[in-house]
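>> received
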Amino acid sequence: MVAAASSSVANLVKEHAHMLTGTTDDYKPLLDLIGDSNFVLLGEASHGTHEFYASRAKITKQLIREKGFNAIAVEADWPDAYRVNRFIRERSSDEEAIEALEDFKRFPTWMWRNADVLNLVGWLREYNGHHAPAYGKVGWYGLDLYSLFRSMEAVLQFLDKVDAEAAARARARYACFDHYSDNSQAYGYAASTGRSKACEGAVMDQLMELSKQAGRYAKGDLDEFFYAQQNARLVRNAEEYYRTMFEGHVDSWNLRDRHMMETLEHLVAHLKARVGKAKIIIWAHNSHLGDARATQMGEHGELNLGQLVRQQYPRDAFLVGYTTYSGTVTAASDWDQPPERKRVRPALRGSYESIFHDVDLPRFFVSMRNHQIEEALSSQRLERAIGVVYRPETERASHYFNSSLSGQFDAVLHFDETRAVEPLERTAQWERGEVPETYPFAV
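>> returned
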């Protein structure tokens, strides 16, 4: 009965799917669906799949050229991404795109230090250099909050240049973290268990002082003040995040995605103040960009960026998800471990990925704004999510959750067989790939 229902859904999807053929017109129907939306959220079902990065890059270029988008906000740390921002806007000493990506040193480095991102960053630099967009050069910004210590350093560097006395006060406040040697989790554990005094008051005081001086500091360079102020906001939010991460997954997850939304809102205000318009493309994992209200995580109290953007801009946001059935992926076997080129197991029967495999098209997209598709893909089914860690030996428990696909996204792109994204540092372990399950018999 379930198999028959899945087959019926696959046939319906095939009837309404737009096949991707590799031509320049592939995404024209998708851009037509996006219309005048000012926020386009481009997801991914893993952090290590070439086709997802390449497709998002292609759509991003078209949105910039054809619809005037002027910012890309990504699931990356604010200071690391801002070095890329300076490079593509010709405001840094970096001469090559690969230099601009050098600050992405925190695990997982391959998420942004890969061949597809390198190509896009080079294109953005060239585009900004040869065009004079009506709404300013395209920018690149980070939404995440893991850079607690690097962001403190950035605040101090800014104040050292504009206000030596304020810099001294900031150092005194941030000295609260001196015992933790850039180890954010050590601080969070100590503060959450009462083993050390929390730095909550110090980081809030620093943000308030910096914000009170906005009128004076912003007169010099509005962009650089915005960068420093956002680092101070990040320090405040990251301090709370690391305190809560030992108290419960839902609280820390929600704090992180609220920080992403807060960052997005401040970016919107900054762009409107600077150039009069904010049209933003957002890159992040499906789990952050697919409306959480349509997933089992939402039922457990989790929210995410996609949900918050839809709630804030209900008629101005377009959410795009990505799926795959099998292939290879760049991922680690555990946190903070080196990247490997792993085989993606065929999707479980009954999952959305399995249904899309049965559509029997190598790559396509389907609109959830089609009433028939919306209804057919509204049922709770399994959906796969591979992050920076992939554990195929516990595939069902580690990488699947129940969701309504049409409730999460406005459109979904499916690439049936995909390959691993190429890290800029290709180790022998990555080159070798995953040892076959049949080793040493190779049968």
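>> Residues 438-443 have pLDDT under 50 and may be disordered.
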